[in-house]
Amino acid sequence: MGLFRRGAKPETDGTDVEPSTLAPQSSADADDGARAVDGDDALEPDAVTPGRPRGPWDVDDVDDEVGRVDLGALRLPGVPGMELRMEIDKASNVVSAATVLLDGSSLQIQAFAAPRTEGIWDEIRAEIAESVTQQGGSADDLPGPFGRELLARLPVRTPEGRTGHRPARFLGTDGPRWFVRGVLTGKAAVEPEAARALEQVFSRIVVVRGTEARPPRDLLPLSLPGGAAVPTSAPEQPTFDPLTRGPEITEIR
Q1: What is the per-residue DSSP string for 10-64?
Q2: Helices marked H in 147-230
């Protein structure tokens, strides 16, 4: 599903996260590290922004006391028991996505630059649906808690070598000069109750766009929690395999 930029597909956090269709990532095997962080803060009620019932929010629109992890372009609310994985493009050594895992479900999150005058989710949603269909899956454009979303059945290869399908919900929110895309997989893709906690996480994301000029759909830079350095490694030739995993840094809340 490399629809928008040349290079490798973004990697997944494992069996549950469908790769992004917006930015490249390498196909190297995952190298996981883990460390405990504080994270017992319960999510507070949503901030109120005129004309918007819920987030993700722009940093200039938020004035609340929700505890969030600083990931550079994204500030992510913490949920007790969640696991946070940062996905790294091994070819460029850039942090390309954040994935939250909770109770058998996953939410992969990326932020992108967008035009000043119009949103891009309608266009991107159509392109994702077309890509999924071309690969042998299906996608339904449906109303959801964040507006229009895609409920997709993504083609996958089973351990027995057969073709199967994995459900995934593609969420999108247009903000001022930015766009946030989320992918719900696992139980949260098909069970409303299982999706509730991760939907709450998505709705309380804060985006720090920055003032620098960026072309539309350019990936906004992420960083590791706590200012940790990205592990260095030799660049590898990108591939287009959408089912391989990428390097990951893991935190447990």
Answers
A1: PPBSSSS-PPPSSS----PPP---EEE----PPPPPPP-BTTBSS-SEEGGG---
A2: 192-203
For 226, phi then psi, to 5°, come to 75, 10
User: Where do we find the tokens 């009620």?
Assistant: 45
- Bridge partners of 49, per DSSP, are 52
List, for residues 204-246, the tens digit of each pLDDT value.
999 999 999 999 999 999 999 876 656 655 333 333 233 233 3
Contacts of residue 192, Cβ cutoff 8 Å, sequence gap at least 6: none
Say yes or no to pLDDT of 138 above 70. Answer: yes
Contact of 220 with 111, CB cutoff 8 Å: yes
Residue pair 90/245 in contact (Cβ under 8 Å)? The answer is no
* Separation CA 23–CA 42 (nearest Å): 32
Q: What is the pLDDT of residue 230?
A: 63
Indicate whether 247 pLDDT > 60. Answer: no
Instruction: Output DSSP code: residue 121.
Output: H
pTM of the prediction? 0.73
Domains of the chain: 34-38+49-222+241-252 (3.40.1000)
Closest C-alpha among 178, 171, 179, 180 to residue 152: 171
